[in-house]
Design goal:
The protein is of the alpha+beta class. The protein folds into 3 domains: about 5-70, no CATH class; about 75-195, CBS-domain (Roll), CATH 3.10.580.10; about 215-295, Uridine Diphospho-n-acetylenolpyruvylglucosamine Reductase, domain 3 (2-Layer Sandwich), CATH 3.30.465. The chain contains 12 helices and 14 strands. Helix 3 packs antiparallel against helix 4 (about 55-70).
Length: about 300
């Protein structure tokens, strides 16, 4: 994050409310802000009629901003199955390898299980343990993770993301674990996850390429189960209509789980009413990972 952005986020000038505090009053629907919200909505509507008024990205950001106050932590969190975390007794050498594999600068730290989180460790704190030797080489001073860990925030799934953003700003902590009503770890939210709700995806040089579908020689497609249904339709021309009650399903994997009512096992074949079948190529107990999608085989007909 640039210094300019950091200053934008960390403005704690006592003489005037920070940007996010002013934003909180606006998005919470305070009476004084109602006219401002209405004006913004009118600007977006007018821009839709006059394409030159605002660019498409500007209209999108304004629309996202108005919806921002309704979003909860559970809507943006990374699910538990996708959390990369480190056990407190892990050696620094193994920690560095984990940082390299995860391509994150911050990792949650836990004791024995992820349901007992004790903080977070920042890659910068590890680099500060590097010492220069007489021959000019670097040496990593061994230290327990407990010595370099920092506090981590905790948030319930129902917390408005705006409140969590304010909490992150005031505590200078950019990572929060989502804790369920029983005290278990349910997910993880970074400040980037929240900001992306307004500005859209923030990709960097380490982000993986978006999931896509690969055509098979004999017909059909192999696809990452995370691929968005609209993206899959655009790439393949195949649409999977959603029934009532399935409005929240966004991915191919979600469609398969919805059809079965559970997470399928590798090798299972699941039929879809649209005339296609899904073969589960890869899955674990928590999620579907890779699918083969092909037309359903026609039913054999016997001689009357």
């Amino acid at each position: 994050m640039s210094d300019a952005h950091r200053g934008f986020l960390d403005n704690d000038d006592d003489r005037s409310p920070s940007f996010f505090k002013r934003l909180a009053h606006l998005l919470r629907g305070d009476t004084a802000a109602a006219a401002i919200r209405e004006s913004l909505e009118e600007v977006i509507e007018e821009s839709d009629r006059q394409s030159a008024a605002l660019s498409a990205p500007e209209r999108t950001m304004l629309a996202n901003l108005l919806k921002f106050g309704e979003i909860q932590v559970k809507d943006v969190m990374v699910p538990r199955a996708d959390i990369v975390a480190v056990e407190e007794k892990t050696s620094l050498a193994d920690l560095i390898l984990l940082f390299r594999k995860a391509q994150h600068s911050r990792l949650p730290v836990y004791r024995e299980t992820l349901d007992d989180p004790i903080g977070l460790v920042h890659l910068k704190s590890v680099l500060e343990l590097l010492e220069t030797e007489a021959d000019g080489n670097f040496h990593l001073r061994e230290a327990p993770i407990a010595e370099i860990k920092h506090d981590i925030l905790f948030a319930p799934p129902s917390m408005p993301v705006l409140e969590l953003l304010l909490k992150m700003q005031t505590s200078h902590t950019h990572l929060a674990l989502v804790i369920d009503e029983y005290g278990g770890t349910d997910g993880l939210v970074s400040i980037e996850d929240i900001i992306e709700q307004i500005v859209g995806d923030i990709a960097d040089e380490h982000d993986e390429e978006a999931p896509h579908a690969r055509p098979l020689t004999g017909g059909g497609f192999v696809a990452d189960a995370r691929i968005d249904l609209e993206d899959f339709k655009n790439e393949t021309g195949i649409a999977f209509p959603l029934d009532e009650g399935q409005e929240e399903i966004d991915t191919l994997g979600g469609v398969v789980v919805s059809l079965l009512g559970r997470v399928p096992q590798r090798g299972e074949i699941v039929a879809h009413p649209a005339g296609y079948e899904f073969e589960v190529l890869e899955a674990d107990p928590r999620r579907v990972k890779r699918l083969c999608i092909r037309p359903s085989a026609p039913l054999a007909t016997g001689a009357g």
